[in-house]
Amino acid sequence: MAPPQFGIMTAPMQVGYSDLQRVWKEADAIPEIGHAWLFDHLMPIEGDLNGPIFEGWTLLSALAAQTERLRLGLLVTSNRFRPPAMLAKIATTVDIVSGGRLEFGIGAGSRPSHPIARREYEAHGLPYDDADAAVESLDEACTIIRRWWTEEAPFDFEGSHHRLTGAFGSPKPVQQPHPPIVIGGRAKATLRVVAEHADVWNIPGGDVDDAVSRSALLDRYCAEIGRAPGEITRSMALPVSYDQPGQTRDAIAEAVDAGFQHFVLILPAPYPRNVARWVADEFINGYA
């Protein structure tokens, strides 16, 4: 089996642009770190709720232009924030700016049970549908985005949540047939969308037994539609502890033993000097 892949996440809240630049440039120079991620919120979800936060796709494009090697993405884009054809255009632009390094992360959007995240919808005048509608919309969005990236003639789309007339994407992404699609989530309905559309499935860490059961459910959904489960890389996001790195090492080892192959290590701010080198030495080198 191939060794697991490792990357970092820097949540773009409660932190300055120069600090984010520093960490991403450090990581770009360290081959053991294969990918780097931001998240997609419009208001802080931790710390000072009125504190600073950057818009994810704009920041991702800026960091893409300043790095050369890292694969990069948002873990994950809220499908509730942007119409899918517009999102396909934004993502194509980032793929071109990066020279073909985009990992296209997407999900249904914040859970109704997360009131701190929920407030960003009302604050920005964005609709917030129930969970079933959000997952149905995600399914349609993935279909639209894939077609926008790949079809060579304008197309129409008539869905329950999205309707397009004469949709066409030009230019196309650098990556062909399209950037890898990374879908995040653990709900049963979301896993059906993962089985249909994803190249990578990501789940938050913390409960490996639950992650394993969700992975087995994904296998079942793949079998139901005739897709090989092994086509979908299993990814886990894990928080990093600077003070107790042994906890993070144990969590990685447990997830590797459970069959996960792709890890996003979430770095809390403020970021220590040379944090990317520390991450590689502390967590990654033993799996090379």
Distance between the termini: 12 Å
SSE succession? EHEHEEHEHHEEEHEHEHEH
Radius of gyration: 18 Å
Number of discrete helical segments:
9
> Could you tell me the strand content as a percent range?
15-25%
**Structural class of the helix and strand makeup?**
alpha/beta
Q: What topology, given as strand order, has the largest sheet?
A: 3-2-1-11-10-9-8-5-4
Low-confidence parts: none
Mean pLDDT: 95
Largest sheet: 9 strands, parallel
Q: How many strands in all?
A: 11
Explain how this protein is built.
The protein is of the alpha/beta class. It has 9 helices and 11 strands. The strands form 2 sheets. Strands 3-2-1-11-10-9-8-5-4 form a 9-stranded parallel sheet. β2, α2 and β3 (71-74) form a beta-alpha-beta unit. The two termini are 12 Å apart. The relative contact order is 0.15. The mean pLDDT is 95.
List the helices and strands and how they pair.
Layout: E1 5-9, H1 17-28, E2 35-38, H2 56-65, E3 71-74, E4 77-78, H3 84-97, E5 104-107, H4 115-123, H5 131-150, E6 155-158, E7 163-167, E8 181-184, H6 188-197, E9 200-204, H7 208-225, E10 233-239, H8 245-257, E11 262-266, H9 275-284
Parallel strand pairs: 1-2, 1-11, 2-3, 4-5, 5-8, 8-9, 9-10, 10-11
Antiparallel strand pairs: 6-7
